[in-house]
Design brief:
- The protein has 99 residues and is of the alpha+beta class.
- The chain has one domain (11-98): Gyrase A, domain 2 (2-Layer Sandwich), CATH 3.30.1360.
- It has 3 helices and 4 strands; from the N terminus they run αββαββα.
- Strand 3 (76-82) and strand 4 form a beta hairpin.
- The two termini are 24 Å apart.
- The relative contact order is 0.16.
């Protein structure tokens, strides 16, 4: 089960959010990506490619900020599924109910 496939999380809104908020380099201006960074959307993915190195934690921060803004932070968690990827997963509420 995926939040995107369940139509709870709107990926096109998240793509627009990243385009507007992503900053390049130290002291960069939000939304001005230039040629160094590209953010593109595929069916169930957002792909960020950069010529400059940036912290993976920054992308996780922006994702958390988007979830908070849309009041979804209580339902999803951001998990690193591989070295260069994140995915959204539901909180496991069944375990919490049993305790």
């Amino acid at each position: 089960m995926s939040p995107i496939r369940d139509e709870i999380f709107e990926i096109s809104d998240f793509h627009e959010f990243l385009l507007a908020r992503f900053k390049v380099g130290k002291g960069g201006v939000a939304g001005q990506l230039g040629d160094d960074v590209s953010i593109r959307m595929e069916k169930y993915k957002i792909i960020v490619t950069s010529k400059e190195a940036f912290a993976k934690k920054y992308l996780k921060f922006l994702t958390g900020k988007f979830l908070k803004k849309n009041e979804l932070r209580d339902y999803f968690r951001i998990v690193a599924s591989a070295k260069n990827t994140f995915e959204l997963r539901y909180f496991n509420t069944e375990e919490q109910e049993q305790e």
